[in-house]
Amino acid sequence: MKIAVLPGDGIGTEIVAEAVKVLRALDLRFEMETAPVGGAAYEAQGHPLPEATLQLARQADAILFGAVGDWKYDKLERQLRPEQAILGLRKHLGLFANFRPAICYEQLTHASSLKPELVAGLDILIIRELTGDIYFGQPRGRRQAPDGHFPGAEEAFDTMRYTRPEIERIAHVAFQAARKRSRRVTSVDKANVLETFQLWKDVVTEVGKRYPDVALDHIYVDNAAMQLVKAPKKFDVVVTGNMFGDILSDEAAMLTGSIGMLPSASLNAGNQGLYEPSHGSAPDIAGQGVANPLATILSAAMMLRYSLNQPEAADRIESAVQHVLAQGLRTADIWSQGTTKVGTRQMGDAVVAAITSTKKTITKG
Ligand code: NAD
After folding, report:
1. Among 6, 262, 325, 346, which one has the highest count of C-beta atoms within 10 angstroms of its own C-beta?
2. What is the pLDDT of residues 102-157, one digit of tens each?
3. 298, 105 in Cβ contact below 8 A?
4. Where is the secretion signal located (predicted)?
5. 1-96+269-365 in CATH: which number?
6. What is the SS3 assignment for 129?
């Protein structure tokens, strides 16, 4: 098994180092190879996704990704900006299915911005289509407006589009995921206004007929945004397009206490996956050793489960994370009165210690 390790920029290097430490503590046999990506790759090699990094990612069974981006690259032309690396990897590897679980750990119910009773026991899986929609649709650009309210004025435009097969495959992913959970799928659309999402709704409904054991309901995206803060526990598996999923999954992240807790997996048809925290490179706290590494560590657990076929190892990481939270250890983003504030490295060390102690127990048993 080969893991491509792409730490990237900002806190990316700090949090990935902790996840690598945790993976090493499992005593599994896999090869890990590191390569630059994002701003770090632009500085070193003049491109955010150098050919050698892309080749490594293609050959690997899984990719552990940190985060890319920094405000200092904002003035670069678009194809050289760090964020193009992640978009490029998604496109080149066909990573169309993004899994973002939003789980509120019992110990963190008070870190959420919602009342504890609304989030206690929350366990939602947001499945976001990742390679289509308005982020990739052509044509796009700037021009003089040919018509509209101000003909001749400067305008910018993007294209929202989805083909039937793109919707079918993400719908299948959602229904299959729901079969492993509580057999409920909510499809989020804007079918009342957008052609693209009328097709989305039609196709998801058709695919749903092939999963009679899974309940399907549809909700408009504006209502979904509202319901997520009003009664989040009524959702289980949520499936939606690229842009709506981008926004709703960040909203769901906040329900769990901090974006620093939210892992993600992006899979292609062959189950090769890219695993990364849902947050960005956090330039505001980079280099201070205070970032929460748990989203990245939990992403490594998802990697073991979905791409490397090591579900017990994934369970061990997740239990170790629960254990350190139960011990009262918190990074600054999830800290509250009565808990112990720790830095990035101490949090990683504590997870390693929890894994090592279970290893000793297993060996003794
Ligand atoms: P961000 O997610 O980096 O940060 C948002 C806020 O959350 C900040 O206050 C940050 O300090 C905090 N935060 C994020 N992760 C944290 C962690 N692990 N522990 C503690 N606090 C954490 O989003 P942003 O500030 O909008 O973007 C910063 C850069 O990241 C931009 O260049 C953006 O383009 C990039 N970005 C990259 C990815 C990616 O690599 N997949 C995703 C989103 C944003």
Report:
1. 6
2. 998 888 888 888 898 999 989 999 999 999 999 989 999 999 999 999 999 999 99
3. no
4. none
5. 3.40.718.10
6. strand
Pair of tokens at residue 163: 């083909």
Q: Which string of b and e fits 207-224 if b means at least 16 CB within 10 Å?
A: bbeebeebebebbbbeeb
The CA distances from residue 314 to 230, 265, 305, in Å, are 32, 13, 6
**Structure tokens belonging to residue 314:** 């994934």
Minimum-distance ligand 1 atom for the alpha carbon of 73: 32
Q: How far is the CA of 114 from the centre of ligand 1 (A)?
A: 21
List all residues whose CB is within 6 A of at least one atom of ligand 1. 11, 15, 67-70, 83, 86, 259-260, 276, 279-285, 291-292, 295, 333
| Residue 287 counted as an annotated binding residue | yes
> Is 222 assigned a catalytic role?
yes
Domain boundaries, the chain: 1-96+269-365, 99-267
Q: What is the DSSP letter of 107?
A: G
Q: What is the pLDDT of residues 278-325, one digit of tens each?
A: 899 999 999 999 999 999 999 999 999 989 999 999 999 999 999 999
Amino acid found at 144: Q
> What's the topology of domain 99-267?
Isopropylmalate Dehydrogenase (3.40.718)
34 contact partners, CB below 8 Å, separation of at least 6: 5, 6, 7
Residue 318 near residue 11 (C-beta atoms within 8 A): no
Reply yes or no: is the peptide bond before residue 139 cis, omega within 30 of 0. yes
Query: How far, in Å, CA of 149 to CA of 123, rounded?
Result: 45
